[in-house]
What we know:
The protein is of the alpha+beta class.
Amino acid sequence: MKSRIFMYLFIFSVLLIIFQYVNSKNIIDKYEEDITTFKSKIIDNEKTIATLEDQNFELNYFNIDRNEDALSYFEAQGYDTDELIPAITDGLYSMNNYEGDDHPIVPYVSMTGSKLLINKIRIMNHRWIVANFTDGEYWGEIFVTYSIDKNNNLSYKLVEYFMYPKIS
């Protein structure tokens, strides 16, 4: 009887060990599959990030923040670019506060009754600005040059402009 108990205990132990082994193997296989999946996702995400960084670099090519020659030009003139660049954009944005129908720099009149407003400005270098404008329904873009006189006054000159046709 004692030997039967030991035999049953032995068989039970072997079955328990086999069950533990199979269960552990399934868990480890699942973890390895998950790790492989996540590694492939990480690689894909890293490729996407690298592509987006390249696109961001290309999109910021015509931007004064990335143009060392333009920044050096201002610094050689004695200007602090950290203060000057916001002053240039603020000067254009301040033109949005006008009376009447005529915008100070946009050569169009609003066709919707609301004011034409400059929305987005890109300072390209130490002379050129591209900006877009809209009245809420119609929109367009302007190409502006700017200069700073001896009294540190900013002046803007409209060079080119267009308004997109309304698509019905």
